[in-house]
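Quick one: SH3 domain-containing protein from Neogemmobacter tilapiae, structure tokens please.
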Amino acid sequence: MTNFIPKTHAMPRAPFGGRKGINLTRALLGLLVITATLPGTTAPLWAQNDMRLEQVHFPPGATGATINGRITGNEFVVYKIGAEAGQQIAIDLRADNTATYFNLYAPGNGPGDEALVIGEQLATANSYAGLLPTSGEYGLSVFLYRSAARRGETSTYRIKLSVSGDTGEVAEGDFADGLQGGPDFWAVQTSGGPLTLRAEASTGAGVVARLATGTPLRNLGCRMAEGRRWCNVATLSDPGLEGWAAGEFLVEGSGDGVATQLPDMLPVPADGEDALVPGTDFNATGTVDCARTAGALTESCAFGVTRQGNGNGVVTIEWPDGRSRVIVFASGEAVAYDQSEAEKDTAMSAVRDGSDSIVTIGQERFVIPDAVIWGG
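--- reply ---
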């Protein structure tokens, strides 16, 4: 074991044949724009190798994980690990093929760039512990030594990985990931359903809301926890929902149309308050059009709405059979719903049709007029 990170200019033995290649960040942005080639060939260098990128996720509250994998020939894996400056990383690789090695790369770098740690050169090969110099997503590549790769050998391996130590109040040494900078606004980008907004930067933290793809969010700063990037965000409303979202589901967004001080668009009664419907906890009640399954006839569902002003509020819809559905609105847009465990893969979408929001949750469909959430 060693307690420091050696500075070295040695290149990895396997992928890229020891030549200086492309930056990992650029590889993530576009794997097709590659021009480097192997000696004596005209084929793109990436065509000679099969790279997989995998984000490492630690269990809730954990500081480490065990990774099991398998590679054959020129295949190699780059594991992305989120960590902050001053934390300690420990890596222990064991494989059934002794030609298997790892390299560790600083944020923004990857195979073909200078490695922070070369597993082959350690006093105990493939076993390392040391302090991290900067904050961001590190790359841990696992590959077969060049001669074994050329023979098409296979390796089954296990990595024991941990990132321990407290983080400071700010992300010191933020080299390439913009943890304390980045865009002013994010937008949710998911393909498998709504994004969970949590009370803390952990998959084990309580759920604040479920956010639909495209939801605009204000960036309040990002940190690393459980091996990944978490961003503190707030919906663009007043008051807004605030919580932590997994960074891989956020893309740079725009604050266009967001006023510094939102106008008072909620009609205010003479007494200065949006009064409750007598005998209820709702500011308004009525019915909306609804359909339980795709192609089903439209029904009328009872609703009650709790308004918070400026298009923010919660609409509770009751099906004729007594079951209910809750939809959260921010700035007049449907952004979340009361997702059950059985519905964790069920997506929500919302489109505008004149003065109505048509909200679809799985096969369910609701037509919610603007007056429901805005008043009037």
